[in-house]
Write a structure and sequence with these properties.
Pfam families: SWIM (PF04434). Keywords: Metal-binding, Zinc, Zinc-finger. InterPro entries: Znf_SWIM. This protein is an alpha+beta fold. It is built from 7 helices and 4 strands; from the N terminus they run H-H-E-E-E-H-H-E-H-H-H. Strands 1-2-3-4 form a 4-stranded antiparallel β-sheet. Strand 1 and strand 2 form a beta hairpin. The protein binds zinc ion. Zinc ion binds next to helix 5.
């Protein structure tokens, strides 16, 4: 059962990065990775344009870093216009509009790079997979973060703090930039 991850189109993108449908055999580390995220063993998640870092607690504490390309100015503007008037809780229809416009919110798997400081040789390791699941869960809760990750910073709508996971982001970085 993994229905708690990817309950929105925004989170599903990252669930799919962890569980690519192209795999003929599921990665044996996936159940463990899901369990780590579910049991809040992924902490200190920080999301910035182009970068996510997190600490995963399993066989020690390991720092995971995920890099994704940010959009260019034109794409950022287009996405910003599209989400104007929406709060943090962007509906899946905004996601599908972006996909139809040829600007899917999720980076393609081949441009996502992830690193972990563990000594395991397997990549992605269980820590990276756990971080992907945690990212999926957090984007389900706050879809707008999927756009922040691609470079769309928004200073117009105040954060709704009700469901902000602790440590998810630095509010000064997220909202501190003057809007245009
Ligand atoms: Zn690792």
């Amino acid at each position: 059962m993994n229905s708690e991850f990817g309950t929105t189109a925004w989170g599903r993108d990252w669930q799919r990065l962890a569980e690519p449908t192209s795999l003929t055999r599921p990665d044996p580390a996936l159940p463990k990775a899901r369990s780590l995220a579910r049991r809040d063993h992924v902490t200190d998640v920080e999301l910035h344009p182009g970068e996510i870092t997190a600490v995963v607690h399993h066989s020690g504490s390991h720092r995971v870093r995920v890099d994704v390309p940010v959009w260019d100015g034109e794409h950022v503007e287009r996405a910003r216009e599209l989400v104007t008037g929406h709060g943090d809780d962007l509906p899946d229809t905004v996601h599908s509009t972006l996909v139809r416009a040829g600007q899917p919110p999720a980076p393609q798997p081949d441009v996502v790079t992830a690193s972990c400081d563990c000594t395991g040789r397997k990549r992605p390791c269980v820590h990276i997979l756990a971080a992907f699941f945690e990212i999926a869960r957090q984007l389900d809760h706050r879809p707008r973060l999927a756009l922040v990750l691609r470079g769309v910073e928004d200073s117009h709508s105040p954060p709704s703090t009700a469901r902000v996971p602790i440590g998810l982001l630095d509010p000064t970085d997220f909202y501190g930039e003057p809007g245009r």
